[in-house]
Specification:
7-stranded mixed sheet, 15 strands, globular, GroES-like_sf, NAD(P)-bd_dom_sf
Length: 311
């Protein structure tokens, strides 16, 4: 099979599309023929081993994993022993948070892991929405109906998902985006859209129960005046001088939450996709052979929503 492989940390040029053996499903696993996957901030950071301490999980000197890609959508190709509930040919999507592997023509995933059937009328390239939504859910799931939240950077994969998930929780959502994304944020359901290029969003006042930095470009110090008493600042990045991590260690009002229960979330997301209450926002699509260019584009920080790889 073809796969985008790397064996050293570094820039996108470390990746090469080459042929590797097709994996065999172990007992309890599905083998999926991948039809679509994504390139995300997580992929680019893992390739560069950023931040450095992430090497404790991925390999100190050289990477232990050699194929990136957390999202996948495709067809069940083979079943390991003991698998029930799935059949060859079933359309499925999901996440690979532990070992990645989506940047390949085939991948094996546990039948009880983060995988679920793709709802009818959802195409493969429309189903690779899991990673950004999963990260967003770690923050938005804490919202209650009637609460207010501000989402800074509501145009990326995490931010566009956060707007929709926060609305599903019954929250009032203020989305902060640049000029070219004002209409997008409104279409996603934001109650208020603020253009950070024309207005200082940090001067809105102590209005919010939650402020979420979905792109890692602001900090608690800049946003603290936005919070109601007891309000929480949540970030998807370490912050300046790792301030979000350090402050989070001493205050419940600052956090960089990591999501859990990927299997449960994927099934919940499948239900939302089928009901039409959640939809991915997609930017560019690349062939697997052009994955280096996809990584370069994601690293610009200018993508809108999700960048997909088609197989």
């Amino acid at each position: 099979m073809k796969a985008a492989v790397f064996d050293r940390y570094g820039p996108p040029e470390r990746l090469s599309v080459t042929r590797v053996p097709i994996p065999e499903p172990k007992p309890g696993e599905l083998r999926v023929r991948v039809r679509a996957t994504t390139v995300t901030r997580t992929d680019t950071a893992t390739l560069r081993a950023h931040p450095f301490f992430a090497r404790a999980m991925t390999g100190w000197v050289r990477p232990r994993m050699h194929i990136l890609g957390m999202d996948f959508a495709g067809e069940v190709d083979a079943l390991g022993a003991g698998v029930t509930g799935y059949a060859v040919g079933d359309r499925v999507f999901g996440l690979l948070p532990d070992h990645f592997g989506g940047h390949a023509e085939f991948v094996c995933v546990g039948a009880q892991a983060a995988v679920a059937p793709i709802p009818d009328k959802i195409a493969f390239h429309e189903a690779v929405v899991g990673e950004g939504a999963w990260y967003a859910s770690s923050t938005t799931d804490g919202l209650r109906s009637g609460q207010s939240c501000l989402i800074y950077g509501a145009s990326g994969a995490i931010g566009t998902a956060a707007v929709q998930l926060a609305k599903a929780q019954g929250a009032e959502v203020t989305a902060v985006v640049g000029t070219r994304h004002l209409d997008l944020a409104a279409r996603l359901g934001a109650d208020r859209v603020v253009n950070y290029e024309a207005e200082d969003f940090t001067a809105l006042g102590p209005t919010f129960d939650l402020v979420m930095d979905a792109v890692g470009h602001t900090s608690w110090f800049a946003c603290r005046r936005l919070l109601k008493p007891g309000g929480v600042f949540s970030a998807t990045d370490l912050g300046p001088f790792w301030s979000n991590i350090l402050l989070g260690a001493v205050s419940r009002r600052v956090g960089t939450p990591y999501p859990n229960d990927a299997p449960g979330f994927v099934w919940r997301l499948a239900g939302m996709l089928g009901a039409g209450t959640f939809a991915g926002v997609f930017d560019r699509s690349y062939a697997l052979e052009d994955i280096v260019e996809a990584f370069r584009y994601v690293e610009t920080g200018q993508k809108t929503g999700i960048v997909t790889i088609r197989m």
